[in-house]
Design goal:
Elements: H1 4-10, E1 20-25, H2 40-46, E2 54-56, E3 62-64, E4 67-72, E5 79-84, H3 98-108, E6 122-129, E7 132-137, H4 156-161, E8 188-194, E9 198-203, E10 216-221, H5 225-233, E11 239-240, H6 248-252, E12 257-272, H7 292-301, H8 304-311, E13 316-318, H9 332-335, H10 342-351, E14 358-365, H11 372-384, E15 388-395, H12 397-405, E16 411-417, H13 423-431, H14 449-458, H15 464-480, E17 485-497, E18 500-501, E19 516-517
Parallel strand pairs: 1-10, 1-11, 14-15
Antiparallel strand pairs: 2-3, 4-5, 5-7, 6-7, 8-9, 9-10, 11-17, 12-16, 12-17, 13-17, 18-19
Helix pairs in contact: 7-10, 13-14, 14-15
Length: 519
């Protein structure tokens, strides 16, 4: 954690001006390898250095980036045709062309890639000419282009020269050259990086788009909420992305500071190991989470309204639906939840065979979501009322996420955004049995062959009405099985100098190229 005085020392070499933007948020990027970690803060930083074929505007629409046009082939409905932007160069001066796209999409499909589930229906990627790429799917995939908004394009020659043809295996603790070095086509180049301390980026003179108003970015992760706000109030940073909910009202009344707010395309939920015969952290002789009575009891003690009012200070949207309302597949019926019933919950625990209750570890990040540790602390108290004794294990997200990926946690908190705005993204990563490109964040071990088959069918369904019906069937089964225990949809607030204009992005991925300055 940096104190305000330490921040001042770190930033003395950077002068504040209309061209330099000093940007602070709670967490740093986990890595600079563009295909290693499908994780919010990581992708947010990388969007300034690397680019994707298509982008996502703040209204949710797709925008052209390295691809100027995309369509399904008239000759073959299983082929997507991408026309690439000409005259684009990488930061080292190398020319961008179709070879780089073919290489990057294949790299994103690799076993160690955090993005492989997005490309599970891809059969092959081929170069037609220097500026045309064909992506052959296993069947018609009318929504595939929606999966490309966070899949970054690398320079094939640079990757080969630096021995980074395969993505970093983050969960295994692997390092490679791309973890700390970059060569993208994005609007900013990497000037310097000290992980967890500061990353400096400068506007790329050779970028194909208009020159941004912000020509230098100083990105500083500040995990401590009070320190982030103090840095803004003292003028040491210009934009704070993760505003503590308890400080929003005060900052709205502070001269020289502006707050922008909006809902995020992200839900916060608990999940648990539903499959193993025993739990590694529990004193129970078996696995309580395998029993429907225990999953129901946990749902009955969760007081979403109390978390909204006390923990989130009103800055959340309580919901039982394990997906945000932005996403195709969300319904009002899924969103509804009842009042807590602690007495019934305690009775269910006894009926399930635990007259003295049981204990288990609850793994929680403390630097990823708004008030994440406080949400977990509240849940510990709620569970205790039903004699489920949760031991809170709170740690940084760089340690927390591998627990889920490596199946080393019994019970955990996770947040999940949906950049494709479609339920298939949730299913592919969180619901499908962990195999091939599927289920990389399925920490619950949930496995249902019938559900898996339906999930796989979504990628190639052209009848969108029938596809939506299949999505509804999957959600009905998932919710019946209580795979997730959803808490709320996250709300966002950005704080900034009052001469800075920056809208809240629904994916919490603000792009500093969009910043303007008021006179």
């Amino acid at each position: 954690m940096l104190s305000v005085s330490a921040l001042a020392l770190v930033m003395t070499s950077v002068s504040a001006s209309a061209e330099t933007l000093r940007w602070a948020r709670v967490a740093d990027a986990l890595t600079l390898d563009p295909h290693s970690q499908n994780e919010g803060p990581t992708s947010t930083l990388l969007h300034h250095i690397y680019e994707t074929l298509v982008g996502r505007a703040t209204d949710g629409s797709l925008t052209p980036r390295l691809a100027t046009e995309w369509r399904i082939s008239e000759e073959d409905p299983t082929v997507w045709v991408f026309t690439l932007r000409e005259g684009v160069t990488f930061h080292d001066g190398s020319e961008f062309n179709a070879e780089d796209v073919v290489f990057s999409l294949n790299r994103a499909r690799a076993e160690s890639s955090g993005f492989k589930a997005l490309h599970g229906a891809v059969e092959s990627v081929s170069m037609v000419d220097d500026y045309t790429v064909h992506v052959k799917m296993t069947g018609p995939s009318p929504l595939y282009v929606q999966n490309l908004t966070n899949t970054f394009i690398m320079d094939q020659g640079w990757a080969e020269a630096n021995d980074v043809v395969e993505p970093q295996n983050f969960a295994a603790g692997e390092e490679n050259f791309a973890v700390r070095n970059t060569n993208g086509t994005g609007p900013y180049t990497l000037v310097s990086r000290d992980p967890e301390v500061r990353t400096v980026m400068a506007a790329f003179d050779g970028h194909w788009d208009e020159t941004p108003a912000v020509t230098e970015i100083v990105y500083t992760p500040i995990s401590e909420a009070a320190t982030r706000v103090a840095a803004l109030l003292s003028g040491e940073v210009d934009v704070v992305q993760d505003v503590p909910v308890q400080d929003i009202a005060r900052l709205e009344q502070t001269e020289g500071v502006k707050i922008t707010t909006g809902p995020e395309n992200r839900n916060i939920f608990f999940a648990y190991d539903m499959v193993s015969d025993t739990l590694r952290s529990s004193d129970a002789a078996d696995n309580p989470f395998k029993k429907p009575e225990i999953r129901e009891a946990m749902a009955l003690v969760l007081d979403r309204d109390a978390i909204q009012q006390v923990v989130m200070r009103g800055q959340s949207q309580p919901s039982a639906a394990p997906l945000p309302p932005f996403v195709n597949g969300w319904t009002e019926e899924m969103n509804a939840y009842g009042s807590p019933d602690v007495e019934r919950a305690a009775q269910l625990v006894v009926e399930a065979g635990y007259p003295d209750g049981f204990s288990v570890d609850l793994n929680c990040p403390n630097d990823r979501y708004l008030n994440d540790e406080a949400i977990c602390q509240a849940m510990v108290g709620m569970l205790g009322r039903a004699n489920i004794n949760a031991n809170l294990v709170s740690q940084t997200r760089s340690l927390h996420f591998p627990l889920i990926e490596n199946w080393e946690t019994d019970f955990y908190l996770l947040g999940w955004g949906v950049p494709t705005f479609d339920s298939a993204y949730v299913f592919n990563f969180l619901v499908h049995t962990r195999e091939d490109s599927y289920g990389s964040f399925n920490g619950s071990r949930y496995s249902n062959p019938e559900v898996d088959a339906k999930i796989e069918s979504l990628a190639t369904m052209t009848d969108l009405e029938a596809r939506d019906a299949t999505i509804a069937e999957i959600w009905e089964q998932v919710n019946e099985d209580r795979v997730f225990l959803n808490v709320h949809n996250q709300m966002l607030a950005y704080a900034m100098r009052d001469d800075i204009n920056l809208d809240v992005h629904p994916e919490n991925q603000p792009k500093m190229t969009t910043v303007t300055f008021s006179d």
